[in-house]
Specification:
194 residues; alpha/beta
Length: 194
């Protein structure tokens, strides 16, 4: 599982989730963003204003996925998980690169959504062919509008992903035990895959 931390955090923060998610078929890899941020502005800002950070972060994630595969882990067993800014990056990477013959094991965005200002169209080729995508967020997250989470779910559904969307009433900007339970279910599924 490749795990991406949120803004102003680091690998040690996202790796705190590894204990509650321990599974014998998985190890955890958590890269660090330069200066604690993957891209400089809100994920809802004009995409060009988040460059070159956004492209650099997407390329970094692509290299990690490729390197993990070269080390003998089939792409269908690689899970991506991100929280907050890391969730936005994981989802954006997946919608651009994760379909078809590059199918991933699962994509998990906790308190995040696809990157771009209102009106963005994520029109990339490929079919997710049932790839599990989990989106979990508070319905009143101060950083992530629930409408963007719902829109992100629809984008993945249109592309053939098996989407699980959970909006938690009044939860705030955090990872819940309920979300971790759903992640563990996906890990059991992906870990048992041939």
């Amino acid at each position: 599982m490749i795990m991406l931390h949120g803004r102003n955090a680091g690998p040690e923060n996202i790796l705190e989730l590894a204990g509650p998610m321990a599974h014998p078929a998985f190890s955890f890899l958590a890269p660090a963003a330069a200066g604690g941020t993957w891209y400089p502005l809100s994920f809802l800002a004009e995409t060009a204003r988040n460059e070159p950070g956004l492209s650099s972060a997407l390329q970094m994630l692509d290299r990690l996925v490729d390197e993990t595969e070269r080390r003998g882990v089939p792409r269908r067993r690689i899970m991506l998980l991100g929280f907050s800014q890391g969730a936005c990056l994981v989802l954006e990477y997946a919608v651009r690169h994760g379909a078809g013959n590059r199918r991933l094991g699962a994509v998990i965005g906790l308190s995040g959504g696809l990157i771009g200002p209102p009106g963005t169209v994520w029109d990339y080729p490929g079919d997710f062919a049932g790839t599990p995508v989990l989106l979990g967020c508070s319905d009143v997250d101060p950083h992530i509008p629930k409408e963007r989470v719902e829109e992100s779910a629809r984008v993945f559904e249109r592309r053939g992903a098996r989407v699980t969307l959970r909006l938690y009433p009044g939860m705030g900007h955090l990872v819940s035990d309920a979300e971790l339970s759903l992640v563990r279910e996906l890990m059991r599924e992906v870990g048992a895959a041939p």
